[in-house]
Write a structure and sequence with these properties.
Chain lengths: 347, 227
């Protein structure tokens, strides 16, 4: 690639030189070639610089040194021209290379520092969230293993139940971490298909029934909602995370409302709660990873929601509701609806 | 007579808890640690049902399902990790009857196993289906909500019949579309969205939170009747 540029530079310099030739001294013409060498040296490494110096001297020699149209390599003057061009080219190329290397090293250091920061935040957050359940599991399981037969059946059952619950929470956390990593590294490809939001809502409400049992869930969906081109499994996760968050951060018997609205270009889905509301501060920041005291898990739930919604070309945001409570909303872009079959076609 | 269940799973710890929980329910359990053995054991032991893990060390669980399906209609339930969305659907399209996502509670697995065995011994076609206050009689092509007759279009009937044929089990989008609208429409998922909505409005007490016509997001649908 660099060599192509070197050849190109010589051609351009020669054309420019021809233009100047009529009005200027041949020494000035030589400077055009020198400029070409410097320009190549600013962009490319040593090889193309040597190439452009050689080509330039040859072209200069051939076209502009009388007798024109011939090469003469005997005159030491033109050896000097060549040496100067090469020298200037290599110095410039060396300098730019050094500047560039420093910039690269700087950028690499910054990325490394950022990765390190994220990694340690992740580790701190995860190890905290894993330590408690692991302690419960270890304790309960060892009690069952070593003293099980001496315990009354109801105590055995409750120990087993707490092992089950803690292990399930841990496994959910691990799934979230994996999911976030996959979203961030671009390992998730959207499997888009026509999907129905009420269907997804139905599925998620069914899945989360035990966890929402202590709250009053109100579903407020219009009868006719357009279909959306989306990855239904991922959108279900978004809705699930938002509902779980609402349940986790509001006292029992709090009203949680699931709403959807067709706003023409977007379908806007909302999870509103009438709980204590959101803390002060920037509402955008609560979607950042590992935000401390975030609603739930290792501070990943909302970050996952945002990544998924953005993959769909949508937006997600939080609002403080007037008076009391909070709302989390996301908007998914709507497209022209697909054609439907006439019932008769099917016979 | 107790049913024999083949478990094809490479993790010994998972085999262990499957053996004890299935054993406690009175099933006889045959264990295979990999796909090759699993395929052989399926032929040798002629189990009543197979549980196949999708992440096997030697070959894909989907391949095990294909090989079993070459000669046997035995019900197959697959175990899949959350990350294997795609292979789960491939497994179902290859002929698996249902799936459970790891990690799963044993109650969920046993429910799937029971539904699959019940379906294998008593195919549900041609019977009257009870869905809450709605009943559907496939022979008479008649649907009722309480005493009131409700009209189902031919397509709605076909869709419902296809789900009823796999009562209690998941049916993929592709299977439903192919059976109801034909192979040229196997990708037209939006047909299902529209017709399932209509069916729910006609048969469910709360169409948004259905109790019978359930959505398996990203996979397909499941019809659950009253016990």
């Amino acid at each position: 690639m660099g060599y192509a540029w070197a050849a190109g530079a010589t051609v351009v310099a020669t054309l420019v030189a021809f233009g100047l030739d009529a009005y200027f001294h041949v020494v000035n013409v030589a400077l055009v070639y020198l400029l070409a060498v410097v320009l190549v040296a600013l962009r490319w490494a040593r090889g193309p610089v040597i190439a452009v110096a050689v080509l330039n001297v040859a072209a200069f020699n051939f076209f502009f040194i009388p007798p024109r149209g011939t090469f003469h390599v005997d005159d030491p003057q033109y050896l000097l021209t060549f040496a100067m061009m090469l020298g200037v080219g290599l110095v410039v190329s060396g300098l730019t290379e050094r500047v560039r290397a420093r910039a690269r090293a700087q950028a690499a250091l910054e990325i490394e520092a950022e990765t390190e920061r994220i990694r340690s935040a992740l580790l701190a957050s995860i190890s905290h969230d894993l330590r408690t359940p692991l302690a419960v599991i270890t304790g309960a399981a060892s009690t069952l293993a070593e003293r099980g037969e001496r315990l009354p059946p109801e105590e055995r059952a409750s120990l087993a139940q707490s092992i089950f619950q803690q292990a399930r929470d841990m496994s959910e956390l691990v799934t979230k971490v994996l999911q976030m990593t996959r979203l961030e590294t671009g390992a998730i490809r959207l499997e888009r298909d026509w999907g129905s939001l009420p269907e997804i809502a139905g599925a998620v409400l069914r899945r989360l029934k035990p966890r929402l049992a202590d709250h009053l869930v109100m579903v407020d969906l219009p009868d006719e909602l357009p279909l959306v081109r989306m990855d239904a499994s991922l959108v279900e996760q978004v809705l699930g995370n938002l509902l779980e968050n609402a349940a986790r951060h509001t006292p029992p018997r709090t009203l949680i409302r699931l709403k959807a609205q067709n706003q023409g270009t977007d379908l806007v889905v909302s999870v509103e709660d009438f709980g204590p509301g959101l803390p002060g501060g920037d509402l955008e920041r609560i979607f950042d990873k590992f935000r401390h005291g975030e609603r739930g898990g290792a501070g990943l739930g909302l970050a996952i929601c945002r990544a998924i919604v953005q993959l769909h070309g949508g937006r997600i945001w939080a609002e403080r509701l007037p008076g009391v409570g909070s709302a989390f909303r996301f908007a998914l872009p709507l497209e022209a609806q697909p054609p439907l079959p006439a019932e008769a076609l099917a016979r | 007579m107790s049913a024999t269940i083949l478990v094809v799973e490479d993790e010994p710890e998972i085999r262990m808890f499957l053996r004890s929980s299935l054993g406690a329910e009175g099933y006889r359990v045959v264990e295979s640690p990999n796909g090759r053995r699993g395929t052989l054991d399926a032929g040798m032991h002629k189990p009543d049902l197979a549980i196949v893990d999708l992440g096997l060390p030697d070959f894909d669980g989907v391949e095990v399902i294909r090989r079993i399906r070459e000669w046997s209609p035995m019900p197959i339930v697959v175990l899949s990790a959350r990350i294997q969305e795609r292979s789960k659907i491939d497994a179902l399209d290859a002929g698996a009857d249902d799936y459970v996502t790891k990690p799963f509670g044993v109650g969920e697995l046993l429910a799937r196993v029971r539904a699959a065995l019940r379906h294998a011994t008593r195919p549900s076609s041609g019977k009257v289906l009870a869905l809450g206050d709605a009943t559907v009689d496939f022979e008479k092509r008649q649907a009722k909500r309480g005493e009131r007759e409700i009209h189902l279009t031919p397509i709605e009937f076909r869709l419902l019949a296809c789900l009823a044929k796999h009562l209690g089990m998941v049916v993929t989008h592709r299977q439903l579309l192919t059976e109801v609208w034909g192979p040229t429409h196997s990708e037209d998922t939006h047909y299902l969205r529209v017709y399932m909505k209509q069916l729910r409005e006609k048969l469910e007490a709360d169409p948004v939170q259905p109790k019978h016509l359930l959505t398996e997001t990203g996979v397909g649908y499941r019809l659950v009747a009253d016990d």
